[in-house]
Amino acid sequence: EDIPGIGKRMEMRLWHCRIHTMEQLLKLSPKHMRKIWNNVTGERLWYALHGYDVQGETTQRGMFGHGRVLPPESRKLPEVYKIARLLLMKAARRLRREKFYCSGLWISLSVWKGSWGRKLSLPIVNDDQAILAGLRTLWQQVKDELSANITVYKVHVMLYDLSPAEYRQLDMLLNDDQERRKADILTKAIDKLNRKYSKTVISYGLWNPPKGGHVGGKISYTRIPRAEDFW
What we know:
Elements: H1 8-16, H2 22-26, H3 30-37, H4 40-49, E1 63-69, H5 77-97, E2 100-111, E3 114-125, H6 128-145, E4 152-164, H7 177-197
């Protein structure tokens, strides 16, 4: 368990394979390690443990998302929507900073003894106007499928199906290029003003974070937040 990447679950899997010590682990073959891990990671780990210079695999960005545990006063649907909206705008800002477009939107709600989640296909976009329109569409499903009195404990939003900005493809069946160009110009102007003053001075709709503030600016296990995440 001192080896990076071997957590409790993998430790239990090794125990089930009757591997209890480092000596037993090192005596395995690369193919046996691969079989235990059920992927190439096990084989790569074998070579690393035996002194080979194994280069890490290049990772690719797959999504931009934010989640938040909701304070007691923000657990009914109208208030949940407001926070989901702020989280999504924060995710969209990161999407644009990293020079990506997205074509998918996903939202998940944690409720008592369960969860609700849906996804929506978008045109290839990164402007707030289009992304928030997608949220409104999904939120109508929330209201149609969940009780108005339901209590929501956590909300999570995600933008996925990413494509680099320089490779954006237009939809031949959706003649919205002129509208998208106008929305892009407006969104870039908003981003520029917020960067200039290092805070959210202008946004689509109200910008009213819940108690505790810093929506989307928490410390993550997978990335170090930037100053802009706390605006």
